[in-house]
Structures are given as C-alpha cells and as structure tokens.
Amino acid sequence: xxxxxxxxxxxxxxxxxxxxxxxxxxxxxxxxxxxxxxxxxxxxxxxxxxxxxxxxxxxxxxxxxxxxxxxxxxxxxxxxxxxxxxxxxxxxxxxxxxxxxxxxxxxxxxxxxxxxxxxxxxxxxxxxxxxxxxxxxxxxxxxxxxxxxxxxxxxxxxxxxxxxxxxxxxxxxxxxxxxxxxxxxxxxxxxxxxxxxxxxxxxxxxxxxxxxxxxxxxxxxxxxxxxxxxxxxxxxxxxxxxxxxxxxxxxxxxxxxxxxxxxxxxxxxxxxxxxxxxxxxxxxxxxxxxxxxxxxxxxxxxxxxxxxxxxxxxxxxxxxxxxxxxxxxxxxxxxxxxxxxxxxxxxxxxxxxxxxxxxxxxxxxxxxxxxxxxxxxxxxxxxxxxxxxxxxxxxxxxxxxxxxxxxxxxxxxxxxxxxxxxxxxxxxxxxxxxxxxxxxxxxxxxxxxxxxxxxxxxxxxxxxxxx
Length: 467
Fold this sequence. Notes:
Helix content is 33%, strand content 26%. The chain is α/β, with parallel strands linked by helices. The model has no long low-confidence stretch (mean pLDDT 96).
C-alpha cells in the first residue's frame, strides 16, 4: 500500500466512512483511519444501530406480553432472555461493521487501523499497538465524532452509573432505572428497559422534555410516555449522585423550590448530551481552531483555518446526527473532486425511535414565532387514520406548518407509528420547495399511515376529509 493519498479521513463513523467511499468513487486515492478496531463509529457500534435493535426487540416482547391476547393472539409462558437479546443485537452490529469493511474493499479505500494524529497539513501518523506509521496526503478530513458528557464530578463506570453505552449492554433488567436527561438518548433507553420490566424515572432540568422539538409534539410525547408508565420529574436539578454499591443515590431539587429530595435506583443513566471528540489529534499545534463548545471552526466549504484540513459531523456545529454527518462527508468528497458539494441544513430530519416514534423536519412553531414568520397549521390525528386504527396504533398526530402567503412547506412534525420512515416524504417535498397544496393533491395509497400526512396537508387549508 502506497503511503501517499489524495485524502485521509480520520474517523470511520457514518461521516468518515461515507466521505472516504465517495472520494474513492470520484477517483481520489482515499484512506480512512479508525482506532476502534471496527468501522461504523459510535453510531454502528454503540449508538444508533444497537439501540434500534433493542428498541425493536423490547417492543416485540412488550406486545407479546401485554397486547397480543386482547387482539386474539394467545401466547402463554412468555419469557425474557436478556443474554439472547444482547447476542442478537451484537450479531447485527458485527454483520454491519463487516459490511462497511466490504464496501471499503469494493471501492478501493485503504483502511488504516489505529489512532490518527495530524503532524502537519500533509501528514498523518497512525499509532497501532506500539507501531507508528506515517502517511502523506494532500487533504485531511476530521470526522472523529463525539463522546458522552457526564455531570460535574460524576464518574461513569458503566456499572451502576452508566452512559448509553452501558445501557445497551446490561446483563439483566434492573428493578429501577433513573434517567438523567429528557432528550432522545435518555428516552429511547428508558423506553427499552421500561418495556422489559424496569421502573423508569426521568429527571430533566427543563420544564419539558426533548428540548428544541416543537412544543406541542413534546407535550403530547410526554403524555404518551407517562401513560406507558415512565415517571417524570421536570424542572429539576440534580445536586449529587452517589454510588452505594447495591444502588445509586441521587439528590435533586425543583428549580422553583428549595426542598431537596432523594431517589434511589439500581442503575442511573447519564444522558445529558454529547461533546465533540477531538482529543489527541494535535489540533492546537497545527493551528486548527475550536469554538467555546469545543467544536472545530469551519467555513461554508467545511475548511478549517488550514485550507486542506476539513471537518464534518459531530466535531462541527449542528445536530449530532449520523445522517447529517453522512451528507457532510459526501459534500466534502465532492468539493475535493472539484464538484459543488452542498448540505441543505433546513431539511435535515430528526427521529426518536420510541413507540410511538417522533419525527420532524424543518422549523417548529416556536422557531417560526421567534423569526416573525407568518404561518398556518394543519393537523390530523392517527385516531382517524384507518390503518392506524386497525393496527391499534392510534396515539399521536401529524402537524404541518406552511407559509401563510405562499403555502410553501416550512416544517412537519409527527408523533405516531412508523413516522421515522414517513418523515422522508416531507423532507423530499421541502427539498423541492413544495407547498402544502402539492402534498394534499398527491395521491396516497389507502389504507396507509401516510394518508395522515395528506390529511394534515388538507387541514392546512381547513379541508380535511376524514376529521
């Protein structure tokens, strides 16, 4: 293998490996450095993929135990085997990581195993088990992702005090799980272990869950999760966390009161966010600058202060989403090949994979009000959707926001069944500048959940048919 490359990507996660593959497709000699030992990054190894496996399996278990009998499917002696469930999850991850390796071989991307360190704008040194190898390159792309954040003074040991990584690998169902943080990760992991039998309580510093989400959707989401048995302590600040060995003691207080309270739990999941992972890259010495949040500063073409060093994904500003990183990776590869790489940040969907799912794209009502944009709203409940009704999946609704004058779509927010897939229709519509009327006049198959989108689009003009 030659040690001269057109581009070396540091980080083999969704942004990094996609960038390397696209660069190779465009005729560039590309390499990707990854220290984990397997490709796919946090997302594939200890994030998006394994969590979706457990979310799916736990939902199947819950349905078999709680719902099937009332629907005429009688199953007896339902048992949970956590070890087999974890093995199933691990097998899926292994197959997918090997799949990325295959894609590297197929596209002639050089896979450099080890820790990548930037020594100059044209050289990357890879350290692997005491071995040090230097590679020359015309361009460098930093795609090292993010890591979990803890609370001040709290050590995450992945035993009793855990991050999402530990929550994905518990050997048994805890009697009680305390989740600190009411965002995507905490609610997904809380949902998994609640369905498998744990008592789950969520402590959130804000007076609402899922900060940044459309508030009407957020409020409905909390109501549904409460109905499922998850307890919430909102507007509460955690004061201390102490591992007692057999359980964890957490002291907290309501932000509007001085009264301190204590809660004990078998396991405590810290899910208060993630931070860019840029340690050990040598950024300060080579002159790559970061902002006050530790994110790498870039221009509109993803270039750092050093023009042939680029950054994408969780290490730069924007939502820490795998698909956002992928789009940026493709854009950088195309820019390096002389094309017009671009990411439309106004049309990046987000999904919470609970049951029901929550999905959105574009602006929320709160954002539109803050920006002074005049808009109109159309909503349609899944209770009035025939497919959702026969499937006993009637929680939630579709909400569409459109410009008051032009009718151009500004945002779509869905809480309900399969909406993680459904949101793609609205993302595509917005990408092409569609109006609510365009969606309303597009024929949707019957009976499908997507008819709720058509009806919500009709409701923007106050003319839904089935509600």
